[in-house]
Amino acid sequence: MKKLGMLSLVAAAMLLLSGCDHKSATSNEQKASAAQEATKAAPKVETKEAPKVKAEQKVEAGNQAPAQKSAQEAAQSAQKAASNTQEQAQAKVKEATQEAAKAAQAAKSEVQSKIDGAKLFARCASCHGPKGEKHALGKSGIIAGMSKDEILKKLKGYKAGTLNQYGMGSLMRGQVASFSDAELEALADYISKLK
User: Fold this and answer.
1) Where are the chain's structural domains?
2) Could you count the other beta carbons within 10 Å of the beta carbon of residue 155?
3) pLDDT tens, 50-73?
4) Residues 6 or more apart from 77 whose CB is under 8 A from it?
5) Does the reported pTM lie above 0.85?
6) What is 117-192's CATH topology?
7) What angle do CA 175, 180, 184 make, to 5 degrees?
């Protein structure tokens, strides 16, 4: 009777293991562990059926390895797919950022091309001369031939009130205060081309 009870326990454990192939590898591992614990807890019974039960356990353990391997492969595949998706998203963001920067530069160039630097220079010509060849009010340097960057830096300094070259800071600030950055750039571009 004890032999039959022990065999029943082992058979029940085997049924639990083999009854649900569709469950995850983790669930199968838990069942195998429970069956092994039940087998260890049961006293050793010498019967002709014991080797058969051990053989069935080996077959079931063999079935667990492919399931576990398959789950690992699926996880690795999902991880690779997520990594690829992230890289693709980053590439698209970089591309969109570059396109936006190009569009902004094109828009800026278009605005600047519509601003007439010669018209803006009309305010300056009375002191600096029509070609930027004069010392304004006999004090300032000649602006003709200066680089665009140098002129733009000075114009922005006058507009911000941070530059007072030759004591002309407040006068120049009044001249350029109403100019936008695009207008200052167009003016600097025009003046840099005067000879």
Assistant:
1) 2-103, 117-192
2) 23
3) 455 555 555 555 555 666 777 777
4) none
5) no
6) Cytochrome Bc1 Complex; Chain D, domain 2 (1.10.760)
7) 65
